[in-house]
Amino acid sequence: AVVSTQSTGIHGTDLHGMGMDSYQKYIYHLYENKEPLSVYEEFSRGYEEFLQIPLQPLKDNLDNSTYEIFEKDPIKYKQYEEAVYQILLDRGSPIPGGDPIRQVVMVVGAGRGPLVRSSLNASRRSKIPVKVYAVEKNESALIILRNLVKDPYFSEVTIIDSDMRDWTPPEKADILVSELLGSFSDNELSPECLDGAQCLLKDDGLSVPCEYTSYLAPISSRKLFNNVSSQTADAVGEDPFHMGYVVRLQAVNVLDKVKPCFSFHHPNRGDKIDNSRHLTLDFTVATETMLHGFAGYFDARLYRDVYISTHPDTHSKDMFSWFPMFFPLKQPVRVHSGDHVSVDFWRVVDQTKVWYEWALSEPAPQAIHNSRGVSYWIGLFS
């Protein structure tokens, strides 16, 4: 029989002879028993496809509200603590009959102190004594740090008011700890900062992180394209399609496997340090759709097998400090199943800034996006 329930709007054929109330109750059952949102999903609600201009903490001082958001991440600082803990055991464990070997830890870009706390936690766990230097140039963060070290737990911490690249330390570090990574790994100038600060390290000193890699994948998303189109040049620079954006990706179709782009390692003991990069990436799409741009991700090895990652296949569970990047194409391209997509990406460095350029060469060549950093660049100095 065909039945309907006016109050619920449910109508159709009653296949089981139990009335439409049973269907309504089952829908309620499904709703009540749905999987709860993950920490990442809960945190990112409302940010889906919302375009954010990437932070520039080297050029611009972060405000306290931004620090507070990042400090709530439940995973990142646990991973940092584990990395420092393992290094302390490897470097500071005593020989039989001896005492633990004191380790010097320098937290560069210390912010309001979460990595300082992680380093001290690692020291307590490992029972390896440490001396910690917290190096920070942001005055608002320094106020918090100065209050923090009044706590006896932070008695082994010395605060340094300086750019990490300019400080001359009284002793060199066994471990250099930093959280200078951006959504595309190096887009907050971690390579330039850590290369400038590696003179703080002992010859056999270690960096946390020790290496990191950015990744790219072609994506289709009409929603993202429309959102970029609605941006004004005054808000983002000369052209909104010549910008990279931080965005919580949801309404997207990833068209091929994510592939590695740029990699960096620290300390970088090369005779000549050059952080400019160029790479051509080739993809093969599996469906007919529109190509709207490229999604960017990263992973970072802190020490040995301790990682943090936004790579879709290895994403650190519940970590929300970073959303992916989006590099748009000004002219979307129709692609078909089996089509090859080829894109060139550049990381360009001059005396005052760093920027990315990107250009599609297949299936339809396009002009270089963000040529000479016309809309999007990252400043090397305040």
Give a written overview of the molecule.
By secondary structure, this protein is of the alpha+beta class. 23% of the residues lie in helices and 31% in strands. The protein has nine helices and 18 strands. Strands 8, 9, 10, 11, 13, 14 and 15 form a seven-stranded antiparallel beta sheet that branches. The chain has a five-stranded parallel beta sheet with strand order 5-4-3-6-7. Strands 12-16-17-18 form a four-stranded antiparallel beta sheet, with no helix packed on it. β1 (2-5) and β2 (10-13) form a beta hairpin. α4 packs across α5 (114-126). The chain is globular. The termini are far apart. The mean pLDDT is 92.
Write the SSE topology.
Layout: E1 2-5, E2 10-13, H1 20-32, H2 39-44, H3 64-71, H4 76-92, E3 103-108, H5 114-126, E4 130-136, H6 139-148, E5 157-161, E6 173-177, H7 190-197, E7 201-208, E8 211-220, H8 222-229, H9 233-236, E9 245-246, E10 253-254, E11 259-265, E12 277-284, E13 289-303, E14 306-309, E15 325-335, E16 340-349, E17 353-362, E18 378-379
Parallel strand pairs: 3-4, 3-6, 4-5, 6-7
Antiparallel strand pairs: 1-2, 8-10, 8-11, 8-13, 9-15, 12-16, 13-14, 13-15, 16-17, 17-18
Helix pairs in contact: 4-5
